[in-house]
Design a protein that fits this description.
Blueprint lengths: L3 H35 L2 H12 L25 H13 L6 H24 L8 H12 L5 H8 L5 H15 L7 H10 L3 H19 L3 H31 L4 H7 L9 H14 L1 H16 L3 H18 L4 H4 L9 H5 L1 H12 L9 H26 L6 H12 L6 H14 L7 E3 L1 H4 L20 H6 L2 E4 L7 H10 L4 E4 L6 E4 L9
Length: about 525
Amino acid sequence: MLPNRITKALQWLCFSLSFLLPAIFVANFTLNHFYVNGGYVYDSGWLAYLSTHAAYWPLINPTFIGGSFFNIHMALIFYPYFAIYKLFSGIGFSLPPAVFFSITQGFWFGLLSLSAYGLFLPLREKRNSIHVGLAFIFSLLALANGVSISIMAFPHFEIGISASFIAFFALRANHYQKLCYIPLICGLMIREDTGLHYSWAFILLAVTFYFFEKNKEQRYLSAYFVRLAILCFAYAAVIITLQAIFFHSTMLSKIYLGSPAFHHVTWSFIKHRLLLITLTKSYLYVPLIISVMLAYRRRDILQSLGFFFVIPWITFSFFAVTTGAGILESYYAFLIPIALLWTAIIYGLAKETAVSMRSYLSYWKDGSIVLVSSTVSFIIMLTTLYYLFLPTISPEVFQKKISHFFGFEWAHHWKNNQQALDTIFSANLLGQNFVIDSAVAAIEIDKITQKNFYERPTPPSKVEAEKIDVMLYLPNSMRDDDMTKKIISMADLNITCSLPGSSYNIAKKTGTHPELC
């Protein structure tokens, strides 16, 4: 065993790394998403813009999209984002929107991992080096699973809902009884329905502690969770009502209910949705089944609550009219990380109340659900990618794309590409009759109008194509490569060159824009 002084230093080192490693990894991944593979206007470019332009009430979309984002989500979190962005700018760190948004994505995943570490190993406790190492491994599994990678692959702000919820319990486990409300409030600000999810989790905990635990401290927790559930539900009810009155949101019917409500639900729909989930989303539901099986084996009802917490959301989403929501594609699975790390929450609660529960005495035993479910989820995710997507492209291209997402060797690309784009737009070198692909639009979304961008799969009409004399695009973009080729052909853009100092290309008509090519 290591001396106490060294163990304490190791504990703080792992504490720091449990945040920094996921934060840096995800921030780099998101930067590669924007500047190497090519980001999406909807939604990453859109969200990057909102993160750095939330200066007014209500939250205004970029001109290209129009309207207020509150018509979609009452995402008040963008106001703190903007305040932090302005603070960065004020001290000399003026960051492009895509870079700032990438940092926020890294922060949420780092917080998710750090919170897991803080739950398994409260910093004020003396533990040996084995416990420190296991807590560190368990914390990194918050990222190293199929669910988190799926969410990370389509950058969105909803991951903060899970991270904030788990951070709340981590701070309580470390006896920060007032500071713990900060992440909880941040989580509530992310979406109008966050309070509904949080209140359901608190109700489950309250009922379980009241009926199945006899300790006085746990009875106090039961009443405490009831109060939190009421507050969270009340907040959600107020925000949803305000959104319905003042912003007339139609997203619930558009994405989930359909019009008329659930008219799309037939036996054929159910069978097709079940088949799709079975073939492509087993990395979501298999870990949940594992957690229930292990909880049953240990006769531990608290451990099974993670499963029951996400069941209402999964059930509701299953009948969604849109496929992405229905199969919990990418960020739609934003609640699943809470279920995967539920064992950490319960362990933290046990340490907080100092309850002598045999099932929480062993790190290995308590971390088994996290270890098994995360590992299985990750393996299934890789297997699914291999069998469903690899046959559609060559192994070389697949390997190249994967390395482009995860590699650090392109860290300098964002600066070069951003400077090149800023230069060409600020000098208005593209003129009036230009179009750009999604990769460019995601970075320069505030500089375009509807006529400058065609979202797949709808190409320009013949009349519109004849007016286009130049196109700026990212070759082999993950998003718009086919659309780009179609526009170049339709508009007869027969001269191609690279934008100096960047990864982008320019295609133009003969005799136009001599300063470009």
